[in-house]
């Protein structure tokens, strides 16, 4: 009985360690891509809603829409700023 319990504890510890590593990898991956909302991007670029929409249509900015909010990759915004639009 004791041997069986030790084996179960060992399996649980292994499983939880794998879960911890997976969570840490997920957090690191999430931190690689920084997403900014439309208001922030407008202030950074000093542009209107319409200009921002045109940048999306022209492929100058990468964005995704979640619900009613559009988010932009920080890297694409910074690249656009460096290019001078």
Total DSSP helices: 4
Low-confidence stretches: none
Morphology: rod-shaped
If you compute it from the alpha carbons, what radius of gyration comes out, rounded to the nearest whole angstrom? 22 Å
Total number of beta strands? 3
Distance between the termini: 71 Å
Mean pLDDT: 87
Q: Order of SSEs, N→C?
A: HEHHEEH
Which strand order do you get reading across the main beta sheet?
1-3-2
Percent in helix: 55-70%
Short description:
The chain is of the alpha+beta class and 85 residues long. It is built from four helices and three strands.
Describe this structure in words.
- By secondary structure, this protein is of the alpha+beta class.
- It is built from four helices and three strands; from the N terminus they run H-E-H-H-E-E-H.
- It has helices at 2-32, 38-45, 49-57, 74-83, and strands at residues 35-37, 63-66, 69-73.
- The protein has a three-stranded antiparallel β-sheet with strand order 1-3-2.
- A hairpin with a 2-residue loop joins strand 2 and strand 3.
Layout of strands and helices, then pairs:
Layout: H1 2-32, E1 35-37, H2 38-45, H3 49-57, E2 63-66, E3 69-73, H4 74-83
Antiparallel strand pairs: 1-3, 2-3
Descriptors for this entry?
rod-shaped, 3-stranded antiparallel beta sheet, 85 residues, alpha+beta, 4 helices
């Amino acid at each position: 009985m004791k041997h069986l319990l030790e084996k179960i504890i060992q399996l649980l510890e292994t499983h939880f360690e794998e879960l911890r590593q997976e969570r840490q990898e997920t957090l690191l991956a999430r931190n690689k891509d920084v997403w900014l909302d439309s208001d922030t991007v407008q202030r950074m670029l000093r542009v209107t809603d319409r200009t921002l929409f045109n940048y999306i249509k022209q492929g100058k900015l990468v964005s995704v829409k979640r619900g009613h909010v559009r988010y932009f990759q920080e890297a694409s915004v910074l690249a656009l700023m460096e290019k001078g639009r």
